[in-house]
Known about the structure:
With 166 residues, this protein is an alpha+beta fold.
Amino acid sequence: MRHRLGHRLGCSPGFTLVELLAAVVVLGVLLAVALPSFNNSLRKSRRSDAVSALTAVQQAQERWRSLHPAYAADSDLSVAAPTGLGLSSTTSSGAYGIAITSFDPPDNAIGYIVTAATSSTGPQSGDAACANMGVKVRSGNIQYGAAAAAIDWSATDPDPNRCWNR
Length: 166
């Protein structure tokens, strides 16, 4: 019986089941190591989206305050300028909702709190440590905070999880 040069009788070219199984195991280990790192990078990028949205509200509030006796309220957030701030009530990725908490008069002339909060079903819902990020402005002083639940603005460090990477 004649056979081609380089091929043995009874052997077919290709992978054995053991080789294929070893390749799948190696791929699984690599995926198990890389996936948490990738998800962490996504969470951080969405946080930067929240930081950007909060900064945009701060700038819009200062423009508003230069023309009005008090800072804008939450109801003015998504109303088109010049009668409102003209901003979206969510971040560009949709991961956070934006809300303004006004101080009671007459303190609404000296400050406000703007918060970016994740929804329980949104893409950022797995970010338990930084579910809420916020900025408190009062009498020209700016304070940054973040927490899994409500931000404790009275704490010495209102951002204990280092969500605001500056």
